[in-house]
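Extended Data, panel c. Modelled sequence:
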Amino acid sequence: MKIRRIFDKHTWPLWLSFWLPLILMTGYFIYRHMAPFGSSSLLTVDMGQQYVDMFSYFRHTILHDPGAFFYSFSKTIGGDMLGVWAYYLMSPFNLILLAFPGKSITTGIFIITILKYGFAGLAFGWLLTKTRTQSGWLVPMFSTAYALMGWMIANQLNLIWLDTTAILPMVILGLERLFKTGKIRWFAGWLTVMLIDNYYMGYMVILFSCLYWLYAATKYWTNFKTLLQQIGKFAWGGLVSVALSAWLLFPTFYALLQSKAQYNETKISWKFEYAPWKMLAKYVIGSFNFDQMPSGQPNVYIAWIAIIGFIVYFLRHKPSWSVKLSALVVTGVILLSFCFEPLDLLWHADQFPVWYPYRFSFVFCFWVVWLAAQAITKDLTIKLWQALVALGIFAAMFITVALNIKHVTYVSMGNIGITAGLAAISLVLLVAPKRRYLQLYQIVALVLVTTDMTTNAVASLDNISYVSQSEFGDYTQILDKTVSGIQSSNSGFYRIGKTFTRTKDDPLQANYNGGDHFSSTFESIIPNFFGSIGQPDGDGVVTYSNGTLVTDSLLDMQYFMDKNIPSGVSNSENFNSYIPVTSTKPDLRYYTKSSQLSNQKVNVYQNPYALGLGFGASDKILNLKVSKTTGDPIARQELIYQTLANRSTSALISAENFDQVVFQNVKKVVTLTGSVVNKQDLAKTGSIYFKFTPKTNDSYYITLGQNLSTSNASFYINGKALKQYPTYRHTIAVNVATHSKGKTVTFGIQMKKTSLWLQNFTLYKLSNQQFKQSAKKLQKSPWTITKHTSRRLTGTINIKKNHQVLMTTIPYSKGWHAKVDGKTVKTHKVINTFVAVPLSKGKHTVTLTYRPPYFVAGTILSGLTALSTLGWFGYRRYRRRSTD
């Protein structure tokens, strides 16, 4: 009986709404040989560089370490994770990933992607059915137009956003019910789901809900008293949603204040971001390619039947002029938001998007299809004059794009022709009388929409390249194998560095404590600190690729993984492509190679100078003032390390001169650092060779300013290309020599442009003897960790002198709470970055526990709101029964 109710004449349009977009996209992915159906994968751009690693972390947290939900030392050197979950990982679809470990996770991503297409169609079909807007074959027709909209195709690589397309129709259905029945539970319930699933997209849904409320208030207008009631219920529903989500939103908001909020725009330009006519090009099939990802116009392609219906909505006798006017206002606000900077910033929470502009364009696609579904009746026929108006609009659009095609390079004349043909066929179909065979015409319309949207999907996605399954799988397999070997041999707390990188979230993928990270909710203190000590950093990203002996020791890099190139094997062998080297590190000669932990692809080294996560240090560090990112990173390393060891009078690092500088087709300069060098013959290559012969076996480093990047020059050490992570916004430190006494070292720069600024270009020598003495002194009082989880660490330490602190390399946060010998003590923030705890002389047991700030308060609010809501519904139910 229940099966019949699920599969009957009333529900088949919903099933078709779900399966049609799912099958269409599955067919395309099979055609593109996506895993598990071939050698490619859905990994591209952020999906391959960020999300896939987050998904691996998701699996580990759910299956093995629930505490990592709150905090993880795999997030660079440690960080809060609630913000990461709130933005990246709260989708219930992610539970599917639990069945796909290791390199097979790409299959899980495939399944989730096609399911999200299906549920987007199902949700829109549900909205159409429950509001009685459409029925029969027209339900899957409009649902498919929605599920395969241009925003969905362009952003399918942003898998974390796609749930929004399934939740938005439910929120709008809740608003419709609020106006029709006065009940807010559907609206408040689905808005809560949206905020928990992804607060970022939820913010955009809230803004659109406000616009939709204005439209619905006009549509369902009765009187002012009713309007005030509707205002109150709408506001109350929103507040209930926020309160129910507070357990996640409160700590996430705090995390944002430490990360993205620090990059908010402080100056707004009241200007158009581009010529608005360029939006017209987005209604041509295939109007999306890789160049449109970092910057471009909104992706709003919709089936032409829906576009015609949208135009007809404003040409019909019904609804009333006031409703049409409100719909026109909503349309105008969204369109203006696509090109007017202040409104664009509003939709993106006062931050310009880094790639993927106009992320809110899904609401416009929804709006167009939703109004079209209200305009086109089941007879699929429009009046001739309406068709002529639409034809005039279409002609103006296509002519404008064709005449300006050189300004929209992602559009071709061929695609304009195909699009015009689809528009013409759609128009003819709607104009043609359908007194007989109406159902057949409806099926034809569905086929036409399917053809239209599939053509756009294929034309757009064929412009995008993807990571091969082997490239991802081989790297993942060898990284997991090497990390597992290290962790099997040592169950203590330590960090692992490496000289190669697939993504900045390798530590999350392989579940180890590392030094790299990339996310939109990354606390700014870590990029600031990393940039100050010579590591590549950016807004929301760090890469520990330029560690020195000093920073490796300080940050407890007890192990290092280095790509193994067997003797007789060229570096250009196949495995070079999936183990990309991003660090030149001769200093590894000072570390101990472990034959037990090494394998055919990766050598593992142990660092005898690592200080551990915590150690006894001079309390002078409490008062040390260190500039954030300006100045010399090598000098800053020396200042920090020697202050900790209370050896500030002992020279650790010294600036050195080059023995010889050879200029080839470059005008000579006397002073190197800070000079601008120029080519002599602009048509020829300009090169400079800096030579020096070390008099000791100490470590040597060269600092390179931001201007000395791979976009401006190529760099070489003794004729071999420098292996270096390519992007950095502050001065980095490059290890150029170790154990090279009496050997000439040549650092070469080949200019790529006519001039080059030798920004912060200096040669330094590290006194290895002085470094070892400082390291040995700091290792005398280690914090010996006896128990450790993701958010709780307990250990013992023996402070042998007065005026010392427990210095840790745990990033400072108000969420860290310390107990010394069972008593709560205050933590201190040192070097603008780390947690330190003052200690008296003697043996102590120190416990550090992490509680996300405002998590308890948010949980209490959510709990009270949930209980109150349940109590209210229980009371209402009791009252109804008592009056029956």
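The domain at 653-766 is CATH 2.60.120 (Jelly Rolls). This feature is highlighted in the accompanying rendering.
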